[in-house]
Specification:
The chain contains 4 helices and 10 strands. The chain is mainly beta.
């Protein structure tokens, strides 16, 4: 990675991961752990992107299929998939993704705004784009990816 960094407070560590053929990233400070795929117990009448819940050391952890939430085809989880456990406010949730690909350091200057041509769904979740080594990695606003009923929990 050949990004020139300035030692200002706008630098942030991001964890990049793949969902389908696309790469996304979130602030590493939100990540509590990364674990292998565990089959989730489905919940009746939950939104399609909620895979269900798993038991995480005695706590109920809702699993969100990030692909469905971002408007992509559903993930067919295998042993290679991972769950990124994130903390959003008081709530821990698991994000089902294909693989973790990178840890990045970016400053606010490196992050490009999302193009105006993107759909409303993309604009809701994607805070910006990060060009890295010829790839474009979308920075996700995780607080917007949560279902409202989970946020209130």
């Amino acid at each position: 990675m050949s990004m020139t960094m300035h030692a200002d407070s706008s630098n942030r560590e991001l964890i990049a991961f793949r969902v389908g053929r696309q790469e996304f990233c979130i602030n590493v400070m939100m990540v509590r752990e990364i674990r292998g795929w565990t089959a989730a117990t489905s919940l009746p009448r939950s939104p399609r992107y909620i895979r269900g819940v798993i038991n995480l050391r005695g706590a109920v952890l809702p699993i969100i299929d990030l692909a469905i939430r971002l408007g992509l085809p559903a993930t067919e989880p295998t042993a290679r998939n991972v769950i990124i456990v994130v903390q959003i406010g008081q709530q821990q949730i698991g994000l089902l993704v294909d693989a973790v690909s990178d840890i990045l350091t970016a400053s606010n200057m490196n992050i490009q705004p999302s193009p105006d041509v993107s759909s409303d769904l993309v604009k809701t979740f994607v805070k910006g784009l990060l060009p890295v080594d010829g790839r474009m990695i979308s920075l996700i606003a995780l607080d917007n990816a949560l279902p409202r009923e989970l946020e209130a929990a």
